[in-house]
Each structure stands twice: as structure tokens, then as C-alpha cells.
């Protein structure tokens, strides 16, 4: 995925997120009687991907399904942080991106990697307490 494709995908995802946010707001106000669970899950997934992957290089590796390159990138990120080439915050964000990509590609993560991902993945943490409920139309 080149930079132009990334920007276009991000723009489309952000538009869909705004639409999703509007639907949720209407639902909360009672203006929508039923929300398609499948649509809600699809949009939530796009939101997670949009927020989880902010580094174009990682997005490209994920899109091309290149777990070996992602593992190499992970090592590079850790090394860069160790040698103070990047901040700890950038390291943690990029490391969480790579680990999320690896997990979505079906790669096995160590227990240490899973713990890191759980504690540093803001998207996953943001959705921990959200429950989707079915709303029935009584009219």
C-alpha cells in the first residue's frame, strides 16, 4: 500500500467513523430502533484498524501479509528506543501496532507480547467496557 492509498483508505475510514458516530448518537437518543450488529462490528473493526495503525510502513507490511518483515520491524523499534533514536511513547505505539498486525495475521505471540499488547493497545482498552445491545422497535 503506497502513501496515496494509505491516505485514501484513512479518509474513507474516517468518513465511515463519522457516520458510525452519528448512528450511535441517534441510537443513544432513541431515534433509531435497530442497528445492524454486522454493520456495527464492521465499523468498529475499521475504527480499531484506523486507530491502531498510524505508521504507513507497518500498514504496508500488514496489507502484504509479511510477518517476517513485521518481526524485523519490531526488533528495529526496540533497538531504536534502546539507542534513544525514538521516544518511549513512539516505541510503545509502534510496538503495539506491529504486535496487533501480527496477531491479526494469525501469528503466535509470546505471553510477554500479549501482556504488552493488552496494556498498551489503546484501541483494545477503549472497547473493553462497550457492550452492543439489540434495540427492539415497540411501535
TrEMBL record:
Residues 80-129 form the Beta-catenin-interacting ICAT domain. It comes from Henosepilachna vigintioctopunctata. One of its GO terms (molecular function) is beta-catenin binding. Belongs to the CTNNBIP1 family. SUPFAM superfamilies: beta-catenin-interacting protein ICAT. InterPro entries: ICAT_dom, ICAT_sf, LZIC. This is Beta-catenin-interacting ICAT domain-containing protein.
Amino acid at each position: 500500500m503506497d502513501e496515496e492509498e494509505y491516505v485514501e483508505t484513512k479518509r474513507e475510514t474516517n468518513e465511515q467513523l463519522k457516520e458510525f458516530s452519528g448512528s450511535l448518537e441517534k441510537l443513544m437518543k432513541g431515534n433509531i430502533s435497530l442497528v445492524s450488529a454486522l454493520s456495527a462490528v464492521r465499523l468498529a473493526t475499521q475504527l480499531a484498524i484506523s486507530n491502531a495503525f498510524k505508521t504507513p510502513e507497518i500498514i504496508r507490511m500488514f496489507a502484504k501479509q509479511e510477518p517476517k518483515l513485521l518481526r524485523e520491524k519490531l526488533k528495529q523499534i526496540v533497538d531504536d528506543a534502546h539507542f534513544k533514536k525514538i521516544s518511549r511513547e513512539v516505541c510503545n505505539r509502534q510496538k503495539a501496532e506491529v504486535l496487533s498486525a501480527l496477531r491479526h495475521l494469525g501469528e503466535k505471540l509470546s505471553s510477554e507480547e500479549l501482556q504488552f499488547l493488552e496494556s498498551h493497545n489503546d484501541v483494545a482498552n477503549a472497547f473493553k467496557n462497550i457492550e452492543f445491545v439489540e434495540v427492539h422497535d415497540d411501535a
